[in-house]
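Appendix B. Chain record.
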Amino acid sequence: MRKNKKRSECPISRSLDLFGDKWSLLIIRDIAFKGFRFYNEFLDSGEGIATNMLSDRLKKLELNGFIISKKYKELKTKKVYQLTEEGIGLIPILVEMMAWGFKNDDTLLIPDDEVGIVDRIWNDREAFLEEVITSLRNFDSKNYC
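Structure tokens predicted for this chain:
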């Protein structure tokens, strides 16, 4: 797999070249907001990603510096994925997308245990962001969705 070719000098276009497809953003979401770390967790996330697409996106995200994979201590044949600082830098973008989605789609079903997260995004977004980023840096991410 090779790095994405730059289509233009537009920073929005370049950002989309690097991380802007649906599956890449959902993988980053799953690591950051669901605490996923393993291939099968991403595969079983309920989004319906095909195995070849998941494998391709994980490689692309790693090649572009958004995630790293390491051998899992407990089972050396298994990989564990985590966000790099570059990947953590995408968290504010995802939180803004969450806020936009809640605001603009009144058909979203919000489970009772997520209502507090929605309130935090609206009322204290900076503290919510800081909590998520700190938990990722400590490799102790929580399930926020």
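Further analysis of this model is presented in Appendix C.
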